[in-house]
């Protein structure tokens, strides 16, 4: 029995190693842009790879995939420390990794994400249509409050509204504000904001992200309407 148990553990370990190698290979396939390329291509590469992980990869594989992608975004900001867009995407990727990791182990990641988004705002508050504000607002309402973490409903609202001021018709800025309102009991206003998010113009360079976000919005609206 002991031998069988040892063989089973060895097999499971080998399977996990193979899966990680496969995921890493997928990421290399999804994302072939080198860091020597121009900045717009690099940011587009991070955006597209993030969307494919979040909306097309099995949930069970996403934690490792986001961890791997975070190494790429870290390299991006090290190569161009004044590039605010790279800091925004590093923050978003770290947040996504934390969301899949969960538990106390995610706290370090969300703090790093917060610092990255704050750096993006310091460098260029207007970058990516205020995405740093929207992402920071999402962090503030999704993470626990003191003494565990830095979650704060009032700060979340302020940052989300600032994100909306830069991009009042954006799908992400409206989705996160609508989700925030729904989580805090303002169902009527949440419906209005989420419906406005659905009406956002398609982003030519981000079809996968748009499709996935619309599914999330529709699910949120369905839950609200069921109430």
List the helices and strands and how they pair.
Blueprint lengths: L1 H29 L8 H18 L2 H21 L4 H18 L5 H17 L3 H16 L10 H14 L4 H13 L3 H12 L8 H20 L1
Protein described:
The protein has 227 residues and is an all-alpha fold. The chain has ten helices and no strands. It has helices at 2-30, 39-56, 59-79, 84-101, 107-123, 127-142, 153-166, 171-183, 187-198, 207-226. Helix 2 (39-56) runs antiparallel to helix 3 and helix 9 (187-198) packs antiparallel against helix 10 (207-226).
Structure described in brief:
The protein has 227 residues and is mostly helical. The chain is built from 10 helices and no strands.
Considering the chains and any ligands shown, give keywords for the structure.
single chain, 227 residues, mainly alpha, 78% helix, disordered N terminus
């Amino acid at each position: 029995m002991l031998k069988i148990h040892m063989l089973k553990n060895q097999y499971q370990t080998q399977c996990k190693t193979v899966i990680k190698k496969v995921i890493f290979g997928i990421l290399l396939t999804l994302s072939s842009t080198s860091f020597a390329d121009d900045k717009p291509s690099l940011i587009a590469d991070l955006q597209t790879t993030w969307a494919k992980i979040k909306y097309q990869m099995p949930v069970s594989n996403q934690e490792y995939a986001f961890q791997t992608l975070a190494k790429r975004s870290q390299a991006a900001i090290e190569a161009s420390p004044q590039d605010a867009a790279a800091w925004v995407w590093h923050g978003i990727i770290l947040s996504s990794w934390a969301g899949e990791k969960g538990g106390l182990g995610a706290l370090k990641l969300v703090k790093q994400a917060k610092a990255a988004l704050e750096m993006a705002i310091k460098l260029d508050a207007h970058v990516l249509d205020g995405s740093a504000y929207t992402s920071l607002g999402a962090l503030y309402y999704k993470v626990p409050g003191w003494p565990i973490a830095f979650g704060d409903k009032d700060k979340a609202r302020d940052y989300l509204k600032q994100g909306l001021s830069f991009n009042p018709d954006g799908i992400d800025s409206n989705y996160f504000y609508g989700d925030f309102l729904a989580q805090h009991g303002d169902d009527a206003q949440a419906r209005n904001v989420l419906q406005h998010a659905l009406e956002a113009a398609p982003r030519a360079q981000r079809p996968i992200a748009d499709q996935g976000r619309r599914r999330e919005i529709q699910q949120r609206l369905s839950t609200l309407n069921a109430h």
